[in-house]
Structure formats: C-alpha cells, structure tokens
Specification:
Distance between the termini: 41 Å
Strand content: 15-25%
CATH superfamily of the largest domain: Spore Coat Polysaccharide Biosynthesis Protein SpsA, Chain A
Shape: globular
Length: 333
C-alpha cells in the first residue's frame, strides 16, 4: 500500500541536524508515511547518519554532484509514492500531529495545497520566539489567492512572507501539470513554486496554527554580491511571469507582480549602493547613490530600521536584532 504522505527532505552537510528532522517525521501521529532524504553531495557524515536509522519508511537518494535544494526536492517529488508531498528542511522539524492535521484539513477543504503557520526559532535554541504570521494568522486562515501570496512579500518588517510557508502538495496536481521547483532560483524557489501552482489553478488553504518549527537564519549570513545576483534572477523571473497571458488577464495579480518587480529593482539598486558603504568607500557610495535613483526610496525607507537594529543589537544587547525575520518585540506572538 502506498503511503498517504511522502515527506521530502533535501540535505546538504547537515549531519548534526538531520536526525532531528527525520525523528519529527517518524514520530508523526499519521504513521502511513515515507521519508525521502535527498543528500545533495554532502562532504560531511549526512549520508551515514541517515543510513544508521533503521526504519523501512526512510528512503535515501544520494546525488553524485551538488545541485541545490530545488533540484533535490524535484528528485524527491519524482520518486514519491504518497498521495501528498510534504516539505521539510533538514534543520527544521514538525509538531507531532502536523501531517494528520493538514491532510484532514486538505481533504475537508478540497485543497490541492495546504500549509500552516510557522514557529520561529533562533539557531541553537529550542523554544520559539514567535510565529511567522503572528496576530494576522486567524485573519489569513482559509483560501489564499495568487495575488494575496504576492502581496505578502513586501520585503519590510511588516511583511507576512507567506512564501516561507512549508506546503503539503497534492502530488497528482504537480504531476499532471508538470510543476517542479526551478533549480536556477537559489533562495526564493519556494515562493515561485507556490505561485506557479496558484497560477495553474491550485486551491491553496491555510490552517492558521503553527505546526512547523522553522529555524531562522541571520541576515548577516548572506553576502551582498550573491544577494544582488539572486535579485537579478528574481527580477527576470518576475518579468517572465508578468508576460504570461493568464497573468495579464488577472488585473490584481498583475498589479501585485508589477509592485514586486519595482521592489526587487529598488532592492537591487540599494544593494549596489550599500556594498561600498560597508566597505568604507564613502565617495564611491555617494556617487552610486546619486546615479542609482531606484535606490533612493529603499535607502530612505530602510535607513531608520537599519539604525534601530544596530541600536538594539549593540546598545540594548538584543541578539535577535539581526535575525532574517526580525520584528520589534510584541509583533510576532
């Protein structure tokens, strides 16, 4: 008998963490699952850690070369046998009832995709400091449209970032429409994958409860040059999506994507200006700021927050100030 859910876990050099992720999947109240670990040519003991786990539900795919998380997930989707495909990152974990709750919710709602809120947890800690959606979770619970997804990604501290949710997909929907993660997109492939499903008619339902434990990265972990390269790629993807006839026919979605494209362009211009500032090249930075007009708005908008973060980190000793999903105390609960 095929499993109800295929849990797919891409892994790259996470030998110290992947055991926790797999344990959370093995301990689900829904036992009719398989766990597909795709090792992306790790150089540590990740493969050995997985091989030592005695559970017939675990399947290991070891890639000969590093292909990235998106490609690793695609390999898992192709190999999956479950009715549903659930995403799990190797440094994260599930609450024990998550899969049963989401499958029941999906079946009740007639959904092709379901997701939940996320517990936000700092690296090295066990207890969450908040949730992704915070007090907005109950308002957002229910069906999520494509435009709502795009509008949630505003790149400021008030952004809800629905693209960070970890969905459970109806596998037949992905197979029938030949939808996969784009391996050329290195960081935002979750968002674009979800948007592609919605453009192709998926019903996406959000359960407004945190059942996924998400380890938050720190903002300083991303270098500016690679960030700019990723923004250039996202700008290109955004333009290509806007050019599609079915998107042009959805005026709200098109307007939200146009705004996203404008924000991407502003952030790219901002990144080009910030790099010389961080390097202490003040003259060059000022010249770039004068030339890069698209950087003016994000520069003015982000400067107070950047100063506040530094004040909180270095004066108030708030270790969360540089977190990727940083928010003032009390916003996320």
């Amino acid at each position: 008998m095929n499993p109800v859910v295929s849990v797919i876990i891409p892994s790259y050099n996470t030998a110290a963490l992947i055991g926790r992720a797999i344990h959370s999947a093995r301990s689900q109240s829904l036992s009719a699952i398989e766990i597909i670990v795709v090792d992306d040519a790790s150089s540590d003991d990740s493969v050995a850690v997985v091989e030592r786990l005695a559970d017939e539900r675990i399947r290991l795919i070891a890639l000969p070369t590093n292909q990235g998380a998106a490609a690793a997930r695609n390999h898992a989707i192709d190999a999956a046998r479950g009715k549903w495909v659930a995403v799990l990152d190797s440094d994260d974990w599930y609450e024990p009832t998550r899969l049963q709750r989401l499958v029941d919710f999906a079946e009740t709602r007639g959904a092709d995709i379901v997701a939940d809120d996320l517990h936000l947890i700092r690296d090295g800690e066990a207890e969450p400091f908040g949730t992704l959606l915070g007090q907005s979770a109950m308002r957002l619970g229910g069906r999520i449209e494509a435009a709502t997804l795009v509008e949630s990604e505003t790149f400021d501290r008030h952004s809800l970032r629905l693209g960070l949710c970890k969905p459970v997909f109806l596998r037949s929907f992905l197979i029938d429409r030949q939808i996969r993660y784009d391996p050329t997109i290195k960081v935002t492939h979750d968002f674009w994958m979800l948007l592609e499903c919605l453009i192709q008619g998926a019903r996406f339902e959000l359960l407004p409860e945190p059942l996924y434990c998400y380890v938050v990265e720190r903002a300083g972990s991303l270098v500016t040059t690679s960030r700019n390269a990723r923004l250039e790629r996202d700008i290109g993807v955004c333009a290509a999506v806007m050019a599609r006839p079915e998107v042009a026919a959805d005026h709200r979605l098109l307007e939200s994507l146009e705004e996203k494209h404008r924000l991407y362009s502003g952030l790219l211009a901002f990144g080009r200006v910030v790099a010389p500032f961080k390097a202490g090249q003040w003259s060059l930075a000022c010249r770039k700021l004068l030339r890069e007009r698209d950087a003016w708005s994000p520069f003015i908008r982000r400067l107070p927050e950047a100063l506040m973060r530094r004040f909180r980190r270095y004066v108030l000793r708030d270790k969360s100030a540089f977190d990727m999903l940083y928010a003032p105390r009390g916003r996320r609960r």
